[in-house]
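User: Predict the complex with adenosine-5'-diphosphate.
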Amino acid sequence: MLGRILSFLLALMLGLVSGAFIAPEQSGIGGLWGMLAASILWFFLDLWSGLWVKRWLSRPHSQAPAAWGGWGEIVDRVQRLVRVSERQLSASQVRLEQFLSAIQASPNGVLMLDADMRIAWCNTMAAQHLGIDPARDMAQLIGNLVRHPDFSRYLQQGEHAQRVVIDGREHRPDHPQRIALQLFAYGDGQYLLLSQDITAVEQSEAMRRDFVANVSHEIRTPLTVLAGFVETLLSLDLTPDQQKSYLKLMERQSQRMQSLVDDLLTLSRLEGSPMPGREPTPLSVFWTALKSEAQALDEVMAGIWGGLHEVVFDPPEPPDWACLGQRTELQSAMSNLVANALRYTQVGGQVCVSWKWGSQGEGIFTVSDNGPGIAPEHVPRITERFYRVDRSRLRETGGTGLGLAIVKHVVQRHGGELIIASELGRGSSFSIMLPAHRVQRVSGGADGE
Ligand code: ADP
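Assistant: Here is the predicted structure with adenosine-5'-diphosphate placed in the model:
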């Protein structure tokens, strides 16, 4: 503003001087005419500059006009303001992009809906969960795209404090996918629809329920038998021999409960304990323990089934190697496989225990038998807790249904794999594969890693 006043005063002065110069004989009047002419000229120049600035303001990205008088200052200020707001705009643009990519990275789906429930924006996860194409389906009604009846009902009801759970786009009977959805109102009538894949949560909840039901069932069975015997002993007048045979049966039931509780504790210890260290245990130590355990178990079973098995131990070659891991865990996993082979193979059958090397330096402990074998449909499931191929043989074999689950857990904790091969009527082979970094030469040789 000051610039314009100064330029106007300067024009008046120039007009006055030039008027007086052109007509010196009428000094007073000439100066006045000069001032009048200068102010008219100033007015038109000012108007012309103003119009240029106005034209430029409507297209601020075009070349700035070389404005006259105070307009130049206004143009400078406007340019400065435009630069500042451009900087602010690009900073907010960057922040918005960061914000959107953070939402994109979310493991949960985020979908923004306008007041009419039309899609305004969604991240990739929401698109995957709901089968939406973000480019094609923008501005579509969500109710038209997600047609699950439970979701339609949920949209229609006014209350969205609870979530709704529907089958996901990829849901199939053999491949469940469950998606939880919840609407949250925000802003000016808009909605945020959050989606979460809860398949794993639902599965683990179902597993937990099954586990509790199985444990209760497994404990209730021997308890019922025990209670029956106690009642018989109390109510009937039995001979000492009869009493003894009842007590023996009771002992077997309590041993069954004892093994079940022991296996449950082992499983929970495995789940809660840190990853196994690298304590070296020579293979010969495992071999000696396995041989004496197998012999003792076979003799006990011979007392019940009336015969022994042929047990062959094929020793590791070369013998001076050790396993690196948690010794008691590895020992119990190996013993479990030997015990299973003896328990499930008919008297007189053959059980072979061996140690071989894989092509990558991995150690492979195998127990094979020529027992009844397992039908292919059961093989993938026998490592599940409490899964048994033939429940009617339970009493004969005296197992808890947790043995192979424990073995698998131990092997996986050591970075290895439990490999099962079986043929119905011909026999089975169970192998514990320990990776090369879990075996090591104990004396005078190269490292197994
Ligand atoms: P269990 O205590 O019942 O033996 P496991 O987890 O050790 O529980 O084994 C699960 C099931 O796998 C057994 O019930 C049995 O049906 C089958 N199984 C395990 N080992 C053998 C084997 N060597 N031969 C045949 N079937 C076996």
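The two ends are 84 Å apart (CA to CA).
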